[in-house]
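User: Hi! I have a protein structure encoded as tokens and I'd like to know what sequence might fold into it. I'm fairly new to this, so please keep things simple.
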């Protein structure tokens, strides 16, 4: 449980960012707007056994059309996507991820590695991030022999593993870098078999850790008060330097649907205090993706219920639905007519563009498809 002094520090941090956010969202909207937006995404066909692809969508807002600009076939299900300098995109396989590849800006597969060719027993858990100076990549991995969580340190160009650090937990999932180059890792904590089946959930051990970006040394570790909440996806809020919040999307792993239905879906790290700001639930206890939204807040999605919700530090006790369509899943922040605040949302029917100062816009898929958990805006023109 959070101590009284920690809760006071957390609420003070939210109040400062919330005040800035409300001022930022009250500014008059400029009249300019990007004509198109390019989005890195991963998808498969409409059937569960259809092949997977990664590529780039182009959203043409004036023509109200969504086009597939590039597409490459993938060996198995993808997960995290990492846009890189120069227009390339890193695509990660997910549990047990045996491959990692880079798609060049022109749509070629520039580099691909198979983890079966590496020494040891590690396989990818679906996410990667570049170091502060982009000289190396960090990947979340699991040693399939011991079940221990690992952070792979990889050469940025060749993708080959240079080093391996303990994640100080089980099943590390997403990781991000802070402004000092330290690595924030969400250890999902779920015991899994080699074939990715969950088991012994009463032994879950989920946590958020901060590691030294140079040597992997553990600097701090946080847990929430319910051991059956899995900390999985991460996003930095769009707030002034030094005042950013880290949003942590939660997934409930309780025994009954009733318990999962009342479980929270968001934790927030403000400074050095991790807290669950609202106990308002989405009815399933599942956040599939998270991204920054509305100048200091976060959007969270649930494809099971078909809803994306907004959380804002000025109203930390509330979750506000912003999109309600079947299979609401991948999220990415979108600048829109102001400097940030909008969200691009994938649904079972197509893309929804949401912004607090503009009307929602819907673009149907160019063909029947199912988009995976994540996508990322590349650029707008």
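Assistant: Happy to help. Inverse folding works backwards from shape to sequence: for each of the 381 positions I chose a residue that suits the local structure. Here it is:
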């Amino acid at each position: 449980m959070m101590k009284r002094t920690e809760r006071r520090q957390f609420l003070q941090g939210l109040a400062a960012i919330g005040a800035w956010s409300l001022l930022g969202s009250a500014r008059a909207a400029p009249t300019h707007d990007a004509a198109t937006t390019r989005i890195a995404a991963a998808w498969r066909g409409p059937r569960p056994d259809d092949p997977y692809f990664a590529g780039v969508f182009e959203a043409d807002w004036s023509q109200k059309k969504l086009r597939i600009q590039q597409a490459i076939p993938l060996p198995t299900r993808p997960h995290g996507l990492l846009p890189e300098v120069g227009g390339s995109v890193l695509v990660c396989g997910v549990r047990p991820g045996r491959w990692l590849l880079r798609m060049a800006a022109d749509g070629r597969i520039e580099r691909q590695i198979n983890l079966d060719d590496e020494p040891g027993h590690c396989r990818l858990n679906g996410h990667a991030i570049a170091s502060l100076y982009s000289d190396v990549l960090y990947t979340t991995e699991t040693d399939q022999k011991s079940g221990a969580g690992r952070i792979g340190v990889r050469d940025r160009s060749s993708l080959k593993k240079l080093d391996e650090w303990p994640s100080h937990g089980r099943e590390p999932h997403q990781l991000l870098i802070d402004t000092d180059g330290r690595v924030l890792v969400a250890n999902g904590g779920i015991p899994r078999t080699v074939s990715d089946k969950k088991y012994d959930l009463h032994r879950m051990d989920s946590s958020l850790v901060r590691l030294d970006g140079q040597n992997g040394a553990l600097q701090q570790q946080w847990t929430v008060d319910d051991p059956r909440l899995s900390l999985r996806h991460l996003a930095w809020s769009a707030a002034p330097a030094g005042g950013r919040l880290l949003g942590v999307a939660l997934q409930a792993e309780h025994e009954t649907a009733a318990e999962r239905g009342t479980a929270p879906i968001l934790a927030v790290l403000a400074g050095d205090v991790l807290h669950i700001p609202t106990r308002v639930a989405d009815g399933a206890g599942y956040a599939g993706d998270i991204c920054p939204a509305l100048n200091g807040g976060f959007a969270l999605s649930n494809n099971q219920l078909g809803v994306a919700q907004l959380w804002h530090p000025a109203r930390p006790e509330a979750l506000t639905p912003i999109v309600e369509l079947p299979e609401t899943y991948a999220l990415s922040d979108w600048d829109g007519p102001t400097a940030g605040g909008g969200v691009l949302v994938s649904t079972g029917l197509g893309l929804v563009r949401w912004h607090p100062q503009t009307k929602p816009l819907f673009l149907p898929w160019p063909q029947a498809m199912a988009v995976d958990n994540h996508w990322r805006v590349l650029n707008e023109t």
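A useful reference point when you look it over: Residues 81 and 91 are 5 Å apart (CA to CA). Feel free to ask if any position seems puzzling.
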